[in-house]
Amino acid sequence: MCDFDVIIVGGGLAGLTAAIHLRSKNYNVAVFESKQYPHHKVCGEYVSNEVGPYLEFLGISLPPTIPINEMLLSLENGNVLKAKLPMGGFGLSRHAFDHLLYKRAKELGAKVFIESVNSIRYVNNHFRVGLESGRECTGKFVIGSYGKRGMLDKDLKRRFIQKKSPWLAVKAHYKLDSFPENLVAIHNFRGGYGGLSKTESGAVNFCYLVAYDSFKKEKNMARFNQNIIARNPYLDKFLNDAEMLFDQPMTIGQVSFHKKKPVEQHIIMCGDTAGLIHPLCGNGMAMALHSAKMASESIHTYFKTGFGDRSQLERDYETQWQHMFAKRLWMGRQLQAVLLNPRLSHVAMGILVNSPYIVNKLIKNTHGQIIRCQ
Predict the structure, then answer these.
(1) What is the Cα–Cα distance from 361 to 363, expressed in whole angstroms?
(2) What is the pTM of this model?
(3) Once rounded to an integer, what is the mean pLDDT over residues 50-72?
(4) Coil, strand or helix at 80
(5) Which bin fits 188, alpha (ψ -120 to 50), beta or left (φ > 0)?
(6) pLDDT score for 256
(7) Tell me: the pLDDT tens digits for 281-295?
């Protein structure tokens, strides 16, 4: 049996960030990830600049990227809104970002295992983590960072997993040299919306979210692109001009935006495992890193103060998580509701085009502040 200070279930952005942070404080850390690095994930791949100082603190050297400082929003009828992004960000693929964090975690001495976790049980102030191989590991803390939904959610009987979700997410990279490097574009179509932005490789990431009922009526992806997505003139031009670089688009079903708890059965949840922001806000990657920072600092404080009150740590983390993210998640839900309603979106677009103040306010309310480090 292997024993660790902290076991991290899921080696994506949040999990690897927590591993790096905790290893920098010399804790014995294990990460369990089901897929070999590097690999692609369904993700918008826009990173807000709020994470810059924290990445420096972690010792992460990013590949050269082009600053993204403009946003474009279009409706199916061709109406369009353009705005500056005051904080801005950059495009970085999950293929590159996760691999970069993985190498840094390994460099610092984190134990990274390519193996799935089947169960997590809290017994006598310790966790017992059951692995796919039949082995078991123990740890003082467990961080859950295994993504939007998984079998562990069912095993833990999390409330959101009992509710059906209509959303399907689809992603692929495309070659289109003429796409503006400094732009993130959000395009609405019937039953969904998609985002376009360039990554560090020069490829354009097209990631969209659609109600499954809308998708299944078209029988296959080619017909869906032709009959639904291409009704938006911007997306029609993109699909005609661009060359897909993947053999097939990646998909994830049952994407849930239901509320989740940041702490479940004493497991500290981070990233999408704690709460999923709507992709149109373009801030999920930054939130994943920020939540990992909060969890790591809470655990460090617990150990540093001589094994304090676990319940207090959990309450403090939940309070901090709600303070940092609850408003942004709520705003994302409201914006999506408007965007998916043709009448409301038309009215809202008319207001926003003539109201730069409101546009700036919405952008600010879906982005966080610079993540400060000590």
Answers:
(1) 5
(2) 0.94
(3) 93
(4) strand
(5) beta
(6) 82
(7) 668 899 999 999 999
Contact 20, 110 (CB under 8 A): yes
Residue that is written with structure tokens 């809104």 in the block: 81
CATH 3.50.50.60 domain position(s) in the chain: 2-68+90-164+255-365
Say what percent of the chain tops pLDDT 70: 97
207 touches 42 (CB < 8 A): yes
Q: How far is CA 262 from CA 174, 269, 278, 309, 330, in A?
A: 35, 5, 17, 18, 15
Q: Tokens 């919306």 correspond to what residue?
A: 193
- The fold for domain 2-68+90-164+255-365 equals FAD/NAD(P)-binding domain (3.50.50)
Q: Where in the chain is the domain with CATH 3.30.9.100?
A: 167-253
Q: What CATH architecture does domain 167-253 belong to? A: 2-Layer Sandwich (3.30)
Residues 223-240: pLDDT tens digits? 999 999 999 999 999 999
85-121 pLDDT per residue, tens: 888 999 999 999 999 999 999 999 999 999 999 999 9
- Which is nearest to 23 in space by CA: 109, 91, 88, 87? 109
Q: Can you list the pairs that 293-299 forms with residues at least 24 positions away whose Cβ atoms lie under 8 Å?
A: 293/17, 293/21, 293/54, 293/371, 293/373, 294/320, 294/321, 294/324, 295/18, 295/143, 295/268, 295/270, 296/17, 296/18, 296/21, 296/22, 296/25, 297/21, 298/268, 299/6, 299/22, 299/27, 299/141, 299/268
